Amino acid sequence: MSKSFIKHVHYIRIPVKDLERSARWYRDVLKLHLVDNTEERAVLKVNEGPFLLILVPTEDETFSHFTINQQPEFIIGFAIPELSKFHQHLLNNEVKAERIKEDNGHAFFDFYDPNGNKLQAHW
Question: What is the CB-side half-sphere exposure of residue 84 using CA atoms within 13 A?
C-alpha cells in the first residue's frame, strides 16, 4: 500500500448556536485549551497535539453528527483513559450522558454538547 499524502487530521468544525457559551463549555467541561475566540469561530486545542476543534456559529438547525434510522450517530470519538471518572465529571456538570457500555473489553458512552451535537468517549 502506498503512503497517503495526508499527514494527520488537523481540525474538525462543529456547528454551534451560541459561540460564547459553547466555547466556555468545551473549555471548562471538556478541559480543552481555548486558542482563539472571535465572532466567526472559537478554536480549541486538544492537549499538545496538532488536533483542533473549531466551533462555528450558525442559526441553521444542523449538527456535527448524522442519523441512521432517524437516530443520531456520533462523528467525533474522544479517547479517555479515565472513562468512569470523566463520565461522572460530565454528570456532575449536568451534561446529557448515556450510560457506560462495554463491548469485547472496549468501554464507551455517548454524550451531548449544549448544542445537541452527539459525541463519544471511549477507552
Answer: 1
